[in-house]
Amino acid sequence: MNASALLANTLSPDATTRQTATQQLESASRENYPVYMLMLSDELRNENSQIHTRNAAGLALKNALSARDSTRQDEYSARWMTLDVDARQKIKEGSLLTLASPQPRAGAVAAQVVSAIAAVELPVGQWPDLVEILLGFINTSDDTNLKIATLQAIGYICETIKPEVLALRSNEILTAVIHGARKEEPSSEVQLAAVHALFNSLEFVRDNFDREGERNYIMQVVCEATQNPSVSVQVGAFECLVKIMALYYDKMAFYMEQALFGLTVMGMKHSDERVALQAVEFWTTVCEEEIELAHEAREAAEYDEPPELESKHFAKVALPEVIPVLLNLLTQQEEDADEGEWNLAMSAGTCLNYMAQAVADAIVPAVIPFIEAHIKAQDWHHREAAVMTFGSILDGPDPQVLTPLVNQALPLLIGMMNDENLHVKDTTAWTLGRICDLLIVTIKPDVHLHPLISALVNGLSDRPRIVTNCCWALMNLADQIGIYLDEYITSASESPLSPYFEGIVSALLRVTETTANESNFRTSAYEAITSYVSHSTTDCIPVVQNTVIAILQRMEQLLNMQNQIVGVDDRNNWNELQSNLCSVVISVIRRLGGGIQPMADRIMTLILQLIQGAGKTSTVLEDTFLVVGSLAAALEAGFAPYIQAFLPFLYPALKAHEDTQLCMVAVGIIGDISRALGDQSAQYAGAFMNVLLENLQSNVLNRNVKISILSCFGDIALAIGPAFDPYLNTTMDVLRQAGSVQPNPLDFDLMDYVAQLREGILEAYTGVVTGFKNTEKAPALLPHVPSILELVHQCLADEERSDSVVKLSFGLIGDLADCFPNGQIKEHLLEEWIAHEFRSKRGMQQETKKTLRWAREMIKRATA
User: Fold this and answer.
1) CA dist., res. 2 & res. 9, Å (int)
2) Number of neighbouring beta carbons within 10 Å of residue 135
3) Out of 278, 526, 662, 680, which could bridge 618 as a Cys pair, Cβ 3.0 to 4.6 Å?
4) Per the record's keyword annotation, is Nucleus included, yes or no (predicted)?
5) Rounded to an integer, what distance in angstroms lies between the CA atom of residue 782 and that of residue 563?
6) Taking Cα atoms as reference points, which of 814, 711, 815 lies closest to residue 773?
């Protein structure tokens, strides 16, 4: 079969034909990669072929070069670079030639191929003349199709390749892109391709934005494009403005005053929703930036320092103009809009939410007249908009400003849960959920709680989306009252929710009896049950016990139904239900603690059956392992009888290196078991340490799992104390090597990773030192003290250090001093850097200061 026919068959409506053709292509790519790639390239450039087969060839070519998964991408890149130079050159030339195809779709897919090859070759110094060739196409050709496809290629390249790789050509790229986006360009399609390319290149033209003249020209072209006759170009231009605001906020004051303010307010009123959505998004972005700047200013104030960037308060200045437009957009809801569909009313609500956070109290007088005028309106659009407005401003203003308004509104909102309109009820339930979440102190138990809970429980028998919001509101009520009691009334034996507890949990359990999960309502009900269990006071414990019995019965029923599962949907539903049930069981175990003992046999029997039945479904396995971990923590030494039955399932999970989440949970289980059994876990330590050390050698295992493994060494050492001695030197070598990894200030991902890595190492060292403290094996730590303190020094010298790292560092110094109180490490503890760090308390949290004071006492004793 020739290439055209084979590619055409991959698009066949007949599933068997399509599957066979796809398998033949995959087989060809594996068995003879060079021939496969050249065949696709020839088909892509063949002007006599049907456009759909050329398109299929181009996509297959691109997919053979690029992958979302980084490991697979490395494989694809290496495979491409093994092709001989002539074959690679022929494919590259074919792709470039196809950019000029009279068929625009062929040119568009060729642009993707050019970008995919560039993403492999440019970072390793190959294809050095590519950018010059592309710029030549734009600057010297009158072929509109070629210009469009070339600009698309440049856009894709800018999107996929790191800015530093293209830094030397950024001026030329920007010039070509801006030239295509100018209002003088006769083709709107060229303008559109140029605007999209500009959007993708904005991150690496930072130097150009620093130069006022160039910045002015870029902004002029983009602002003019918002007025282009083509709506698509207008949308693209507003998208550029959104990204420019996010990237270059500090340089926008002049342009806001001169153009952007007016353009975006007018844009929000545009008759085409696509344009209006982007204009609203612009103001959402302004607010996001200013919320972040306010947060940074507060942090800087704590250190008596000026903020790095100051807010221009664009949102506050624009409030009188922007708010009326947003409120009007809120009334433009669609009766039959899909729940997940992003529309203007939803966008306006989101913007209003961010606006409230950005301008705080100033939002209240700007919206209250609208709420008062419309909350009882005949037209449901206006009623719903009024409730949405009220719900959207609850996060930002001072609670003292909002409290009288909420007190006044609550009875009305509770009554609106009986509104005749679905949308109004839905938004009312959401607003009540926001009040429960953000302003729990405004809910007076003796006045509001009974009617509020009655309305929300009644809502549980309504439409799925209303049920979801009622579950969320009930969950927030439990969480926030629970947090309030924990903070102000320690060991509360009863709660304002106690009289309603059994009724609420029973109603939520009834919601979960259904097989459907539309709008995620069943999952939301299980999440709410989990919250009520977690925050239950002593008087509600019998209800909690009855709840877990009901949940375990459901798990048993589900296990018995496993053989009846037919199809992927049934399997996904089964998995999701089991995960929900596991979450409730975990919350019960954590709440009851050792009181779960009478049910432990039944729970472990069920969980082991579930693990066996889950096969390789990692989400269910993760949840079952978390149940086991919480049970171990609750039972402590009482968990011992279950270990032998569980270990055969734990080890395969630890070796599932490609399943990051499962492997991470499995490592956590080792820590849970070690902490639970204490020195009794020494009999398992050898096997645990071997598998963990093997995992550290894996090239496949995610590096974040390796951080958890280092931390786990500390858990094991702390649990078994001196029995850890056989593994001490190996562990300390591993920790020292890991501690030598240095951050690159230009690589933010690496900086974050190194910060987390160091925290994991500090946790491991703390576990080892504490485990050996006050034992006959303590002297074995002496050779390792310098390398431990060297890491602590590095951590404390880091300007970006987190408070948790500071606390761990001081705690570890104190532990070492406590471990060697008779002067054995005196010279290390008297080093100047330690004295300096213990003099500085600036910006420390209270718990860290407490640790510092304790460590200082230990040092005094150890250096006396």
Assistant:
1) 11
2) 18
3) 662
4) yes
5) 59
6) 815
Taking only the tens place, the pLDDT of each residue in 542-566 is: 999 999 999 999 999 988 888 787 7
pLDDT of residue 750: 82
pLDDT higher than threshold 80 for residue 728: yes
Tokens of 738: 């890991």
Q: Please give the structure tokens belonging to residue 668.
A: 């956590």
In contact, 674 and 724? CB cutoff 8 Å: no
Maximum separation of any 2 CA atoms in the chain, in Å: 91
pLDDT beyond 80 at 6: no
Question: Which residue carries 């290196």 as its tokens?
Answer: 657
- CA–CA gap between residue 91 and residue 75 (Å, rounded): 19
Non-local (6+) Cβ contacts of 51 within 8 A are 103, 105, 106
Tokens encoding 268: 């929000």
Q: How far is it, in rounded angstroms, from Cα 751 to Cα 802?
A: 12
Tokens of 212: 């006022």
Q: What are phi and psi of 715, to 5 degrees?
A: -60, -45
Which residue is it, tokens 């894709």? 156
* DSSP state for residue 312 in the 8-state scheme: -
User: Which one-letter DSSP state was computed for residue 798?
Assistant: -
Structure tokens at 788: 């431990």
Q: Distance between alpha carbon 409 and the CA centroid of its chain, in Å?
A: 35
pLDDT value of residue 487: 80
Only one residue has tokens 């290439």, namely 3
3-state class (DSSP) for residue 17: helix
CA-CA distance, 535 to 193, in Å (whole number)?
55
Distance CA 325, CA 269 (A): 7
Number of other residues whose CB lies within 10 A of the CB of residue 178: 22
pLDDT mean over 757-771: 96
- How far the first Cα of the chain sits from its last, in Å, is 88
* Structure-token pair, residue 258: 């001169």
179-183's contacts with Cβ under 8 Å and 24+ in sequence apart are 179/138, 179/139, 180/138, 180/147, 180/151, 181/221, 181/222, 181/225, 182/221, 182/224, 183/221, 183/224, 183/225, 183/228
Q: Are 280 and 348 in contact (CB under 8 A)?
A: yes
Distance separating alpha carbons of residues 552 and 596, to the nearest angstrom: 13
Q: Are 720 and 679 in contact (CB under 8 A)?
A: yes
Closest CA to 170 of 140, 127, 131: 131
Pair of tokens at residue 432:
């009540």
Give pLDDT, residue 765.
Answer: 97
Q: Which two tokens stand for residue 566?
A: 């037919």
The full length of the chain comes to 864
355 and 323 Cβ atoms separated by less than 8 Å: yes
